[in-house]
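Subject: for your reference before the review

Hello V.,

The reviewers asked for a structural picture of the protein, and I figured it would be easier to keep everything in one thread rather than splitting it across files. Below is the amino acid sequence we used in the manuscript, unchanged from the supplementary table.
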Amino acid sequence: MTAGATLPSRLAGVLDGRDLAAKRGLTFLLATTSTDGWPAIAMLSVGEVVADGDAGLRLALHQGTGSELALRASGRATLLTVIEGEVHTLRLRCAPLGTWEADGLRRAAYAAEIELVRAHAVPYATVTSGIVFELTDPLVPARWEDAIDTLRRLEPPPST
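And here is what came back from the structure prediction:
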């Protein structure tokens, strides 16, 4: 296992917000803790997570979902994905950036500072995939492009 506070190059390339069609199906699990103490898990796509430098991310969640409310309340989350046979977990501190609506969907944007990245691999086994999906709505790739563009444009909140 390796650890650090910046995005590994493999993961940074996946989260660069480019060529989303080629990355279709890749899933990121965002774990938060709800106000009642239970885990809340959101499944995010490459159209909802984008790198913000080498130590930050921008996230788009559906506004008002359990995971979004938990993230708003605690400001903490863990992001998990499988890239090239390694399981990556990222410990995040998040702050709201704003909301927007596109195609009738209300979205909430967050700036996430990476506190810790762990890459988990063992010599005796290779993780071949994480959760992978197949799109059934042809409008989704355009929404992804809009979400990535919006996440990049939003200004961070003032420091407190």
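For the response letter, the relevant points are probably these. The radius of gyration is 15 Å. The chain has a mean pLDDT of 91.

Happy to draft the paragraph if you're swamped.

O.
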